[in-house]
């Protein structure tokens, strides 16, 4: 329903030696750590709501399967636009349409099954869309579980015919509205709490998000009510709800990205949405001309301590400096190769401290050489910033990890190319950072 957008780790198979690095739970501020663990603990206690509810029956299991399948189909069908929306919501509350399925589960299913559906939905989304750190997945899921628990308490208290279920008529409408508001405000309030503790300087306007996002989130709860009613009255018609949901995402939400400004406000680079469109078109041209396209994923190492030590304004200055260096390197390469390319159209900021560099007509070997040039330039940077105390300080010892992937050798589609570069970048992190890893050729 609502989560916080964080930078995307790549897909890899963790082992025990990587476990702590993968979680990075103990590196967050103690107050935020306590908050996260408290929310998680409360969510684990939420199944006590099952007390007094009738045992799980065969009809409950059928409805659970129906909602789980609907959620899975929705996630798979909408993963393209959702990846872009999550990137654009960097560091702020991010509203999604999963509430359609989770709220329907709260209305129809006994609490244990409702909570199981929430966990399966967010685990599926994590596996297929955005592999945030594991503790962040747990926290996001916990906020939805607690929002659902609040809604369940409202339904238990105000449903004279028993829960699960809800009354009919005007009274039922009032109960549904109250349950939906409880779900929304608890979920959103917990996320806002994490935002405030992790980034106290976040402006209230940014923290609250856009009004349109709130309408999207509340609309998903309305669709959840519709899904619940259909499953109760006309279960065979319930799959039709996927049509307006996907139409909303690909018509309205995707349209917002098509008309949005192309520039990332912090760095002046192209933003994630425009870069994605540009990369898609470049791969189409490469397919028709049978030419390679390489992708570099550049991620600054140990960027969070810069924000923590010097302040977010200093962090923004570092991002701006790195962005300028990336453009200069690519412009120099274009000049050397006598290519009529615009460096600022080749580099995009995908979020946080992560940049994507698109290299048309570039082989894996040449791409690795360009990546090495970028790595050396960033390693040699010294950025003068104003500290939080108002003094001038110099930030140096900057390094980056770079993942390189080339179409069509490493991947046959843009999505697979992005995943290959992302995975290579994390291999570079695991190998000690400040290095380059080239994705191997695909066996497919």
Description:
By secondary structure, the protein is of the alpha+beta class. It folds into 2 domains: 258 residues, no CATH class; 167 residues, Reverse transcriptase/Diguanylate cyclase domain (Alpha-Beta Plaits, 2-Layer Sandwich), CATH 3.30.70. 60% of the residues lie in helices and 10% in strands. The strands form 3 sheets. The chain has a 5-stranded mixed sheet with strand order 4-5-3-8-9, with helices on both faces. Strand 8, helix 17 and strand 9 form a beta-alpha-beta unit. Helix 2 packs antiparallel against helix 8, helix 3 packs parallel to helix 6 and helix 5 crosses helix 7. The longest helix is centred in the middle third of the chain and has 30 residues. The radius of gyration is 24 Å and the shape is globular. It starts with a strand and ends in a 6-residue tail after the last strand. About 4% of the residues have low confidence.
* Arithmetic mean pLDDT: 80
Helical stretch tally: 17
- Major beta sheet, specifics? 5 strands, mixed
Radius of gyration: 24 Å
Overall geometric form: globular
Report the uncertain regions: 5-23
User: What is the H-and-E element order?
Assistant: EHHHHEHHHHHHHHEHHHEEHEEEHE
Question: Which structural category fits the helices and strands?
Answer: alpha+beta
Tell me the quaternary state: single chain
Separation, N- and C-terminal Cα atoms: 36 Å
Strand percentage: 5-15%
Helical content (DSSP H or I, runs of 4+)? 55-70%
Question: What is the domain total for the residues?
Answer: 2
Strand order of the largest sheet: 4-5-3-8-9
What's the total number of strands? 9
């Amino acid at each position: 329903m609502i989560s916080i957008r964080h930078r995307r780790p790549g897909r890899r198979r963790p082992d025990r030696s990587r476990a702590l690095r993968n979680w990075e739970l103990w590196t967050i501020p103690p107050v935020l750590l306590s908050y996260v663990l408290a929310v998680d603990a409360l969510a684990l206690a939420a199944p006590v709501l099952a007390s007094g509810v009738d045992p799980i029956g065969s009809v409950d299991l059928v409805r659970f399967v129906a909602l789980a399948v609907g959620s899975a189909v929705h996630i798979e069908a909408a993963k393209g636009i959702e990846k872009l929306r999550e990137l654009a919501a960097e560091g702020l509350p991010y509203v999604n349409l999963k509430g359609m399925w989770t709220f329907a589960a709260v209305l129809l299913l006994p609490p244990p099954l409702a909570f199981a559906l929430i966990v399966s939905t967010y685990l599926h989304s994590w596996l297929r869309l955005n592999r945030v750190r594991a503790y962040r997945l747990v926290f996001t899921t916990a906020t939805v579980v607690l929002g659902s628990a609040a809604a369940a308490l409202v339904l238990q208290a105000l449903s004279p015919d028993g829960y699960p279920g809800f009354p009919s008529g005007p009274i039922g409408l009032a109960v549904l509205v109250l349950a939906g508001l409880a779900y929304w405000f608890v979920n959103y309030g917990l996320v806002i709490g994490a935002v405030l503790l992790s980034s106290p300087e976040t402006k209230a306007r940014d923290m609250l998000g856009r009004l349109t996002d709130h309408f999207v989130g509340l609309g998903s709860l309305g669709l959840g009510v519709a899904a619940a009613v259909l499953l109760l009255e006309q279960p065979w018609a319930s799959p039709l709800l996927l049509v307006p949901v996907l139409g909303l995402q690909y018509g309205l939400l995707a349209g917002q990205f098509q008309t949005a400004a192309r520039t990332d406000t912090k760095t002046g680079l192209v933003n994630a949405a425009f870069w994605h469109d540009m990369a898609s078109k470049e791969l189409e041209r490469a397919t028709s001309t049978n030419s390679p396209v390489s992708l570099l994923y550049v991620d600054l190492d140990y960027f969070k301590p810069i924000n923590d030590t010097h302040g977010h304004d200093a962090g923004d200055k570092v991002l701006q400096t790195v962005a300028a260096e990336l453009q200069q390197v690519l412009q120099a390469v274009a000049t050397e190769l006598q290519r009529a390319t615009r460096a600022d159209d080749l580099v995009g900021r995908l979020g946080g401290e992560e940049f994507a560099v698109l290299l048309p007509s570039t082989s894996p070997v040449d791409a690795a050489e360009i990546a090495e040039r970028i790595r050396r330039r960033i390693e040699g940077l010294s950025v003068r910033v104003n500290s939080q105390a108002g003094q001038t300080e110099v930030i140096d010892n900057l390094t980056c990890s770079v993942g390189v992937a080339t179409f069509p050798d490493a991947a046959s589609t843009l999505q697979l190319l992005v995943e290959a570069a992302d995975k290579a970048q994390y291999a570079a992190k695991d190998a000690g950072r400040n290095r380059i890893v080239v994705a191997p050729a695909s066996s497919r």
